[in-house]
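Q: I have 264 residues here and want to know how they pack in 3D. Can you give me a structure?
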Amino acid sequence: MKKLFFTLMLLWTSILVNAQTATPPAAGDGSSGNPYQIATAENLYWITANNAVVPSPTQQQRLEKFYIQTADIDMTGIPWTPIGILIDGFNFSGNYNGQGYSISSLNVEFPLDNQIGMFGSCQGATLQNVKLVNPYVEGTNNVGALIGVSEGCSVTNCNVEGGSVLGTGSSVGGLIGNALRTSITLTPTSVSGCNVSINVTGGASASYIGGLIGSSSYTTLQRSFANNVVNTVGAQYVGGLIGYCSNNTISKCYSTGGSWVDRL
């Protein structure tokens, strides 16, 4: 039932966003040597649009490509569908380089669903130099401004400035909701040089709420900080940097929004 609801929400969002049109990037072919160039909200939506909107390349093919952002993008008034949705069998496994350009006023509002963020679910992806300004992200479990669920991803020099993240379930973070490794044979997620300053809120029954990462296991975290307000009412495992932390390697990181971590 929940998957059906989420699918209907995606269709509703597609209809709204479709008023803009999913516009293919004007340059690039998605290869490492010639990445697709993302310059507008319509280009950005082209990455995540379903096959009914963009039949070719397929959604799965688009989620595996290389992208560079070439201009600031204003998402005001545009509801956003996360890039990569694990429950539908899709992970983002490509490379997105924001090159320091901003994506402002990103609105990702699915209060009853999971894997919510600019990127919903990523596996083996590389995200670098992404800058989110004043995003609003709301969901239940695995909620983060940049990534809902990260497995084996490299996240480097990504920043979140202002805005808010709200999750009523588990694993809610200012940058990443849940950084995990489901198998010891998989590469751990690494986070380096990332800074966030965003309000992070967990509901009364929430757990694993962190300024940078909600729940983190087998993750390498370096030179990153969270300058957040972490708001919780009765939530369990709350930390200014990480809410729940297990088998991580952490160096030169700090937070100003609460304790370093509640549990190691």
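Q: Anything worth noting?
A: The helical segments are 2-17, 41-48, 59-62. Residues 4-18, 259-264 have pLDDT under 50 and may be disordered.
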